[in-house]
Q: What sequence folds into this?
């Protein structure tokens, strides 16, 4: 039943025939993940492209001083993976942690390659996903080098309103590259205006 959600997700990009739906049923593995459980830790090789069916995840790195830096959040119908580690098969510098009890569908690299080699539909679907991810990454980089912290926060509110009941201000501040105290100052300023 959980794979039906993924099939619907894919069909919003490109229609699938019955054979392609059956391929999805076979290729993806369902997994339940508890809150605070990791699906990737620094030093591991990322072996799965992960689709979130239920729940919330964060992907982050820990710098040399022990400070966490959130790179991505993922909720229902979002993907999460350390793409660099996934494709290079080199150890990851990242962690992916469940922020809620979650259900995910995982696709192994070798199964993804089979999907691409044997069916052009999945090749096109994943190309669309990759292009969207690249656009979002470029947008975030440009925003980080050209926007104030307040502008980044307001944009985060606009882009991701569904995160605010699920992600703490500490996590949001880390994602924005500011301290929780500075985020509190920004929020107070916005509330007064």
A:
């Amino acid at each position: 039943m959980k794979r039906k959600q993924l099939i619907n997700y894919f069909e919003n990009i490109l229609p699938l025939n019955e054979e392609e739906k059956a391929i999805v049923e076979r290729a993806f593995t369902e997994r339940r993940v508890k809150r605070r459980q990791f699906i990737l830790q620094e030093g591991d090789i990322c072996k799965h492209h992960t689709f979130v069916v239920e729940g919330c995840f964060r992907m982050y790195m820990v710098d040399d001083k022990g400070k966490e830096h959130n790179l991505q959040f993922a909720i229902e119908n979002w993907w999460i993976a350390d793409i660099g580690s996934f494709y290079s098969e080199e150890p990851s510098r990242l962690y992916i942690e469940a922020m809620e009890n979650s259900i995910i569908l995982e696709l192994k690299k070798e199964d993804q390659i089979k999907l691409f080699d044997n069916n052009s539909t999945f090749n096109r679907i994943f190309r669309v996903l990759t292009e969207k991810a690249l656009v979002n990454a470029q947008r975030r980089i440009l925003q980080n080098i050209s926007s104030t912290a307040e502008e980044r926060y307001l944009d985060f509110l606009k882009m991701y309103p569904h995160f605010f009941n699920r992600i703490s201000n500490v996590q949001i501040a880390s994602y924005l590259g500011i301290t929780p105290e500075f985020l509190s100052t920004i929020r107070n300023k916005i509330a007064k205006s």
User: Anything to note?
Assistant: Strands lie at 29-33, 38-40, 48-54, 57-62, 68-74, 79-80, 94-98, 102-108. The longest strand covers residues 48-54.
